[in-house]
Amino acid sequence: MKIIVDSNIIFSALLKYTGSIGDLLFNSEDLFSFSAPQFLQQEIEDHWSKLRSISKLSEEELRQSQFRIYQRIEFHDEKLISSRLWLSSESLVKEIDIDDVAFVALARHLRGMLWSGDRTLVLGLRKAGYTKVITTQELLAIRRDLREG
User: Fold this and answer.
1) Whole-structure pTM over 0.85, yes or no?
2) In terms of CB atoms within 10 Å, which of 4, 51, 91, 116 comes out highest?
3) Distance CA 79, CA 37 (A)
């Protein structure tokens, strides 16, 4: 199953990679493939000082965590997404959070599920009729069901 991770998932994993998000990223490769738009890497760098200040990790530990997390994610060039998908994805998120358009567009481009910890985004997309969005708890349940099934 293709899973597109959004920024807040990566921020959470960096801050506490031993939690359920880290568990999903590091212990689900047999079931899920994780992807993200390339710009997410720049977004992380843009917020690095904030991450560093709220993290309990040293700079080196945080960079090691970032490296390990990035090893689990395939990054995609957003320029490969068609303008048709960009425009229709923009119309889905414009009333929720326009900053999430690349994640929705990539999820649609790859025909995957968007994994988000942003409750407003998840509920807003579902209300708009876009159901290919999933929360951490839902993804944990899917993994459990697939392994037990």
Assistant:
1) yes
2) 4
3) 10
pLDDT along the chain (149 residues), means of 10: 95 87 93 96 93 89 93 95 94 92 96 96 95 96 92
In 3-state terms, the chain is what percent helix, strand and coil (to 5)? 60, 10, 25
Q: What is the pLDDT of residue 66?
A: 94
Q: Which residues of 122-146 are buried (b: 16+ CB within 10 A; e: fewer)?
A: bebbeeeebeebbebeebbebbeee
Q: What angle do CA 100, 81, 28 make, to 5 degrees?
A: 65
On whether the 2-148 domain is CATH 1.20.1070.10, my answer is no
Distance CA 25, CA 82 (A): 28
- Rounded distance between C-alpha atoms, residue 91 and residue 87, angstroms: 6
